[in-house]
Design a protein that fits this description.
alpha/beta, Nucleotidyltransferase, domain 5, single chain, 2 domains, five-stranded mixed sheet
Length: about 240
């Protein structure tokens, strides 16, 4: 089986796939220690490991060393100017985040057409790819965790209990206390940003296009017509980069 790891800023997402690319196991770890605990009993079945990381060199090295301690040798993806029909649109291609790059490569290879790729996690990224596979660039904005953290950081009296956040995700009526006011405000701000980017796609792509959404908070886009929620888009791109 193949072990695939997506080492993001706030968590390490992993899955194991068999020879037919069917997902056999999956998980999410908050740190290296919990990752090792989750995969240790499965390590003997691993014949290959693919890894993408947006963490710094030192943190990525620690993760690689931790995986190697299980007798697994990770293959780590690196930046590229072109990949599987997609041309990196950054002036310096090495500066485009690898998670963004792999997600838009996976999206384009799914549809082989113009696409808008949205990753909603700790940060939110939006990228445009035209019908020829040319990456036109994109945007980076704070995600819900960042927005909440900023408010708590700069307003010492504000606290946001997890229980209240879970209840309020679908309720955006004017709030009568601080916590729901913050939660609703963050959600509405993010949805407005994403709606504007969807509207912009009509002019940027100038053709029919598909919208792919991934990331831990991808459900924010539930209800939007013609939006494809793709949970493992980054890992799909990782498989294309290291086939």
């Amino acid at each position: 089986m193949i072990l695939e790891l997506d080492c993001g800023n706030s968590a390490i997402k992993w899955r194991m796939i068999d020879g037919a690319s069917l997902v056999v196991h999956r998980g999410r770890a908050v740190d290296l220690e919990s990752l090792i605990a989750q995969i240790a009993d499965l390590s003997e079945a691993v014949s290959r490991c693919r890894l993408v990381s947006v963490r710094g060199l030192e943190q990525t090295r620690l993760i690689v060393d931790g995986i190697r301690a299980l007798a697994i040798s990770p293959e780590v993806v690196t930046p590229a100017a072109t990949l599987r029909g997609v041309v990196n649109g950054y002036d310096d291609y090495s500066r485009l985040g690898l998670d963004r790059w792999l997600a838009l490569v996976a999206a384009f290879n799914r549809c082989r057409a113009a696409c808008l790729v949205i990753d909603i996690g700790t940060a939110v990224t939006v990228d445009y790819v035209d019908a020829s596979g040319q990456h036109l660039g994109g945007y980076i904005a704070p995600g819900l965790p960042m927005l909440r953290q900023l408010i708590v950081q700069y307003a010492a009296s504000v606290s946001l209990p997890q229980r209240e956040r879970e209840v309020l995700q679908s309720n955006f009526a004017p709030a009568r206390s601080t916590s729901p006011a913050v939660e609703s405000g963050c959600y509405l701000m993010l949805r407005a940003f994403l709606n504007e980017r969807l509207s912009q796609a009509d002019s940027e792509l100038a053709a029919s296009y598909q919208v792919f959404v991934t990331g831990g908070d991808a459900t924010i886009m539930n209800g939007h017509p013609d939006v494809i929620i793709a949970e493992d888009l980054v890992l799909e791109g990782l498989a294309l980069a290291l086939p």
